Amino acid sequence: MKFGHFDDEAREYVITTPATPLPWINYLGTEGFFSLISNTCGGYSFYKDAKLLRITRYRYNALPIDSNGKYYYIKDGDTIWNPGTMPSKTPVDSYECRHGMGYSRFISSKNGLEANLLAFVPVDASCEINRLVLTNHSDQEKQISLFSYVEFCLWNAMDDMTNFQRNLSTGEVEIEGSTVYHKTEYRERRNHYSFFTVNSDIDAYDTSRDEFLGLGNGNAFPDAVTEGKCRNSVASGWYPIASHQINLTLQPGESRELIFLLGYCENPQDQKWEAPNIINKAPAHALIERFSTEEQVAKAFDNLHAYWDQLLSRYTVKSHDPHVNRMANIWNQYQCMITFNMSRSASYYESGTGRGMGFRDSCQDLLGFVHLIPERARERILDIAATQFEDGSAYHQYQPLTKKGNLDIGSGFNDDPLWLIAAVSAYLKETGDFSILDEMVNFDNQKEKADTLYEHLHRSFTYTCTHLGPHKLPLIGRADWNDCLNLNCFSKEPGESFQTTGPSEGPVAESVFIAGMFVKYGKEFADISRLSGHEDLAEQAESAVADMYQTVLDAGWDGEWFLRAYDAEGKKVGSDECEEGKIFIEPQGFCVLAGIGVEEGLAEKALDSVKERLDTKYGVMILQPAYTHYYLNLGEISSYPPGYKENAGIFCHNNPWVSMAETVIGRGNRAFEIYKKTCPSYIEDISEIHRTEPYVYSQMVAGADAKFHGEAKNSWLTGTAAWTFCNLSQAILGVQPSYKGLTIDPCIPEDFGDFQLTRRFRDAMYYIDVVNPDHVQKGVQKVTVDGKDYDGCLIPFEAGKKEYHVTIHMGA
User: Where's the Glycosyl hydrolase 94 catalytic domain (predicted)?
Assistant: First the structure.
């Protein structure tokens, strides 16, 4: 069943009931200030770092679910209700939530009173705007009281949740007219604060949570709202909040618009204050003045629309399939931008207090947004590379604010170095900007240890070359892409490092998946080396890649599919010899993507085995058969119940690898079949089963062994977004950036029909028509560029040329 519908023209998903299976959320913000907002107005805000600069408080694992947000209580006589229905949960007469590109709108009504709440973050300001319009549609005068509510977090979200002996004594606020300033920590740091304000005179306020809610009361029906009067409380320690009370009289047909602003401000770094608890309000005053009128807010909202218009115009497709058009043109690219901003740091499944930005995650995410914001992709690459160690390995995660590696997670994930090559290769192909390779980049963010970005790539490549196991396959270390495949966990002492220089000095478990990565991205490193004048290193890389290719054929092939790995005792993992976990998805996809086994006829066998053994109606499972008990030699992967997460769940992240692999061998029907199974738009009708948002991808869907097969978890922040966009845009629809230009080579279902593409590439627009009169799955028979016949699928980029009109004639 559905809980809403797509509005493609408006680029919105319209939720028509607050009773969705899970909170269905949206992200607000494009640069530094971000908010998460659910379809019932739950969520929280932060500036740049969800752990260190958390502005409002949110409670994970709370009852009721999705507790805390920016709430507006409407007291209309004896009735108390909210535009998003939470937290009062008073039934409303009508409800609609529209999640759009960087904004959400809530339109509800109760007893003839309509509330229209628009929430968004301007593209160039550190604040969230809430525009609330109340309209009296009844035939009688209404006297109502409106109460706003936000609960401030004491900045460090982890400390806020744990260190009560200190933080219950640190809360500080200041009230100036209709503005409540949250200045906890200001006397210590003297450089930042937040505020909540409204562009109206107020009748009363509260800044103490206990005074507003009532001691021991929840937030559904606060004492101040029930009694119709705030206390003008001033918080001192304990729990600071901001609430405005505004009493309104609305005649029949009359509307009143109010603009609420949640802002974040920083002082210049060199600014010092004699009185450390007196904040400099000038930045806040300037921000409030920018967005105090209806006209200013309307202009800011128009600018937000223009921002997304410009971004999403860089790649558009027009096909006969509305699901493809919807996902390619709107939601998939939108989600790619969200993963760029967030990595895996802040969602309704990641609390924002631990992981930060992932090295591997951010490199993969870049594949999906580099065409949208190449200049910011450049910055992200340099940030990521600076967390690398001198030996080529890297911190697995880093904090977005400090750009420092996460010491708690550390390193030892031996696939990480190769993802940097993947990211830089994608950037170079998209932009042609080889100057980035000459940028000096620190190792471990230490200025005295720095070298060119190219040297970072060289060390990434060399790290794999120097970390090979008994079969000459890459050592897996702590894990590879599958964080839960811990094949060395029983062969090392607690605290022993995974940083080894050879099999004789440490754990020797090996990864066929990393071998596939090495072949694929080793070829890219060779190309980059040659194009940047390092011919000797290019030849060395090609030689190492050829050796690894043969090693995978010799030691990584199991007869009908590729092995997954060898454990620390040299036993096969992902083999027909295994009792459980006979076949894994990852090497089947990535080895074929690297071209391994294609000429030898093994690729087709591996992908046929995937279909036979791993396929379900909801997607391709990560492994089969599921592990039914814990295996010490495999680690965390076997700790999950069968069918969930890494133990035979459907990992949406690697389904695109198999789909893309199918395009390598020309099977467009099968590639598109896999694409459709996890694509949110196609499965909107089963939202009661799938449960997560029907407009974005989730990380995982429960596999065939699970009790709730088809149920999804961990939506929004997943590498699925980037990989699926690459799969659709580059592999299936076939428009692939290359170092010298665009290669256009679609691989589509027989019944897909003709389609058109618009693609901005570097400084030019490409207008591409693909015609397929013979209904082939793959094959280009003829190419015309600007009306002239062209030889080959690669269309070289010509500096200064602004438009290309291309027609691709598919055929046998």
Answer: 307-734
Distance, in Å, from the CA atom of 555 to the CA atom of 549, rounded to the nearest integer, reads 10
Instruction: Find out whether 485 and 443 touch, Cβ atoms under 8 Å.
Output: no
Question: Would you state the structure tokens that stand for residue 179, as one six-digit string?
Answer: 């503005």
Q: How far is CA 502 from CA 39, 465, 522, 662, in A?
A: 52, 10, 20, 35
Instruction: Kindly tell me if the per-residue pLDDT of 27 is higher than 80.
Output: yes
Asked if residues 696 and 720 have their Cβ atoms less than 8 Å apart, the reply is: no
- Could you give the domains of the chain? 4-309 (2.70.98.40), 735-810 (2.60.420.10)
The structure tokens 């170092």 sit at 739
What is the DSSP code (8-state) at residue 519? Answer: H
Distance separating the N- and C-terminal Cα atoms of the chain:
42
Active site residue 201: no
Residue 141's identity, in one-letter code, is E
Phi, psi at 525, each rounded to 5°: -65, -40
Residue 273's alpha-carbon distances to 157, 188, 210, 266, 277, in angstroms, are 26, 11, 32, 13, 9
Which residue blocks in 268-293 are alpha helix, DSSP H?
282-290
Is the confidence at residue 765, as pLDDT, over 90? yes
Alpha helix (H) residue ranges in 615-714: 655-664, 668-678, 687-690
Place of tokens 């009792």: 579
Continuous segment of H or E residues that includes residue 453: helix 453-465
Give the contacts of 274 (CB within 8 A, at least 6 positions apart): none
Helix (H) or strand (E) holding 380: helix 374-385
Among candidates 559, 538, 460, 477, which has minimal Cα distance to 513? 477
How is residue 581 written in tokens? 């976990």
Catalytic residue among 159, 206, 321, 483: 483
Longest dimension (CA), the chain: 85
Q: What one-character-per-residue DSSP string does 34-82 give?
A: EEEEETTSBEEEEES-TTTSEEE--BTT-SSSSB-B-EEEEEETTEEE-
Residue 632 CB neighbour total at 10 angstroms: 11
Distance CA 290, CA 298 (A): 12
- Three-class SS string for 112-166? CEEEEEEEECCCCCCEEEEEEEEEECCCCCEEEEEEEEEEEEEECHHHHHHCHHH
Q: Residue 54 in contact with residue 40, Cβ under 8 Å?
A: no
Q: Quick: pLDDT tens for 133-149.
A: 999 999 999 999 999 99
The span from the CA of 550 to the CA of 536, in Å, is 22
Please report how the helices 585-593 and 602-614 are oriented relative to each other, as an axis angle in degrees rounded to 10: 150
The phi-psi region of residue 214 (left if phi > 0; otherwise alpha if psi is between -120 and 50; otherwise beta) is left
Residue whose tokens read 């319209």: 14
Residue 502 — pLDDT band, cuts 50, 70, 90?
A: very low
Using DSSP, how many helices (H) and how many strands (E) does the chain show? 21, 42
- Token pair for 444: 């471990």
Q: How far is CA 342 from the centre of its chain?
A: 6
In 3D space, the residue among 114, 135, 106 whose CA is nearest the CA of residue 24 turns out to be 106
pLDDT tens for residues 268-294? Answer: 765 555 556 678 899 999 999 999 999
Q: Which two tokens stand for residue 793?
A: 């699928």
For residue 240, pLDDT beyond 50: yes
Interval 343-358: pLDDT, tens: 888 999 988 887 788 9
Tokens of 3: 């809980």
Q: What is the mean pLDDT of residues 316-342?
A: 97
CB-based contact 685:3 (threshold 8 Å)? no
- What are the tokens at 753? 């029909």
What SS3 state is found at 792?
coil
Torsions phi, psi of 716, nearest 5?
80, -70
> How does residue 754 score in pLDDT terms, banded at 50, 70 and 90?
very high
Instruction: Name which of 397-406, 414-423, 607-616 the model is least confident about.
Output: 397-406
